[in-house]
Amino acid sequence: MTILPTLALRSFVGFDNLFNELESISNQKHSSFPAHDIIRISDDEYEITLAVSGFNKKDINIDVHDGVLTIKGNGGSEVQDESVQYIYKGIAKRSFEQKFRLEQYVDVKEAKLSNGLLTVSLLREVPEERKPRQITLKTA
């Protein structure tokens, strides 16, 4: 576990779990399959696009739990056709699991599968009471 100097911690109030989360993330092995892009559309809109050629709607599961978006693909068993003889087989249809940590107030808006690309649209909706506000200074 990394110990941060006390001086650095004085600037952070209520972020005890953040440091544990950062350490946990740095220790995780990241899988690059399937290839994916993360796109910022605006300050509050994002898209994650995964290349899932060969996968059908029934092969993919998407869920969100405790701020983690998990996308699983079940490659399943391919039908073995004795009449087909591959010279080169480069289209991977193996099972996968990708996890994405979502910022607070970010939620999945929709997910679409089209032309071998899975696109998950995300939207951040900060409640009014959590938005920045001006504090009136009173005098004694």
Describe the structure.
The protein has a domain at 34-77 and 87-131: Immunoglobulin-like, CATH 2.60.40.790. The protein contains two helices and seven strands, in the order ααβββββββ. It has a four-stranded antiparallel β-sheet with strand order 1-2-7-6, with no helix packed on it. A three-stranded antiparallel β-sheet has the order 3-4-5, with no helix packed on it. Strand 3 and strand 4 form a beta hairpin. It is mostly beta strands and 140 residues long. Mean pLDDT is 81; it is low at 1-10.
Short description:
The protein has 140 residues and is mainly beta. It has helices at residues 6-9, 16-27; strands spanning 36-40, 45-51, 60-65, 68-73, 96-101, 106-114, 117-124.
Could you name the key traits of this structure?
mainly beta; Immunoglobulin-like; three-stranded antiparallel beta sheet; 2 helices; 7 strands; 11% helix; elongated; disordered N terminus
What is the fold's blueprint, element by element?
Layout: H1 6-9, H2 16-27, E1 36-40, E2 45-51, E3 60-65, E4 68-73, E5 96-101, E6 106-114, E7 117-124
Antiparallel strand pairs: 1-2, 2-7, 3-4, 4-5, 6-7
